[in-house]
Specification:
It is built from 1 helix and 11 strands, in the order βββββββββββα. It has one domain (5-123): Jelly Rolls (Sandwich), CATH 2.60.120.260. It starts with a strand and ends in a 7-residue tail after the last helix. It has 149 residues and is mainly beta.
């Protein structure tokens, strides 16, 4: 990974999915579907991720160009997650990395933090979708809104 350059997550032009504080140096993935999306021309992309839990291990997923390519459980601690390798560096790819586990209020330690990215390529502006849907749930009565507060 010597040829890869490290970027702090807040220095990259990304689209955030989910409710989160954008003033922190990390991106916390607090609930199901929270994540990052980016557009990049590169042969490989790795994420600097930290995870923790007591009882319920967090799960994450990776999509490339709208296709699910991986779904996996995260180990405790800081780790490098390969988002992709061996891609054509002259073709832009839309990459989405997100939490795929509901908020577990019973496990006070559960968390996923994205700290940065390693790549040999160039980040592009995130692409806009032609259509957008906004889901407004009943998080107040279910208590989901208290997680991460």
């Amino acid at each position: 990974m010597d040829e890869l350059k490290y970027f702090r997550i807040r220095d990259v032009d990304i689209k955030l999915h989910g409710r989160m504080d954008d003033s922190s140096d990390v991106v916390p993935l607090l609930s199901n579907g929270h994540g990052i999306e980016l557009n990049i021309e590169a042969s490989q992309l790795w994420a600097d991720v930290e995870a923790d839990y007591d009882d319920f291990e967090p799960w994450a997923a990776i999509e490339i160009n709208g296709e699910l390519v991986s779904r996996f459980m995260l180990d405790k601690g800081r780790q490098r997650i390969c988002l992709f390798r061996g891609r054509n560096p002259e073709r832009a790819n839309r990459v989405k990395f997100y939490r795929e586990l509901q908020a577990m209020s019973e496990d006070k330690k559960t968390c996923i933090l994205i700290r940065g990215l390693w790549t040999d390529g160039e980040f592009k502006a995130p692409l806009a979708y032609e259509h957008k849907l906004e889901f407004i749930g009943d998080s107040i009565s279910s208590g989901e809104g208290t997680y991460g507060a």
